[in-house]
Amino acid sequence: MAPLAIAASAATTVVSTLGYMGAANAAETEGAYNKKIYNYRADITEKDAELINEQNRINKIKFNRIARSQAAYTNVAYLKNGIVLDDGDPTSTPQKVIKNNAELVAFEKKVMDYNAAIGVKKQMDAAVFERMQGDVANMTARNQALGYKYQAGASLLGGAATTGQLWNKYY
Q: Which helix (H) or strand (E) holds 85?
């Protein structure tokens, strides 16, 4: 009976220790996997920021076409009505309208750039936050794995003590 009790105590210790070590490995693997997921999401968010810049570039091209077209229509309308556009007087109504329209176009382009910059900033901040979450998930898993390793060590020491007591008791 004594050899069986000692063997059972040793086997329980080994199985328990291996279980804790397996749990530690699983926690580390899970943490690394979660970090990869967060990094992937951050990469997508950064790509979205690039798309915002590209969309802004395309929007400005379209806007420039419309602005040039409207400027041409304005000039044609003045000329059709017999109004001289370049009369040398920068305070004439046609010159004021043309200048005002050009200022409005420049202002709208600045607004478009500003809005795009805000969108890019939000996306980049979100990407940084995703990466931080990945780091936290990985650190949490590593701490959990460390706890399992400590439990494995405690199990090993406790089992060795129990096995030793049984040995001393029977031999």
A: none
Distances (CA, A) of 71 to 48, 78, 89, 98: 34, 11, 19, 7
User: Which residue reads 């000329």 in tokens?
Assistant: 79
Beta-carbon contacts of residue 167 (< 8 Å; ≥ 6 apart): 6
Residue 86 main-chain phi, psi, to 5 deg:
-110, 75
What predicted TM-score, i.e. pTM, was given to this entire model? 0.72
Residue-wise pLDDT for 127-153, tens only, equals: 999 999 999 999 999 999 999 999 999
**Smallest Cα–Cα separation from 146: which of 30, 54, 20, 39?**
20
- Which residues constitute the domain of residue 9? 2-170
Residue with tokens 């926690």: 27
Domain count, the chain: 1
Whole-number Cα distances in Å, 58 to 51, 61, 114: 10, 5, 15
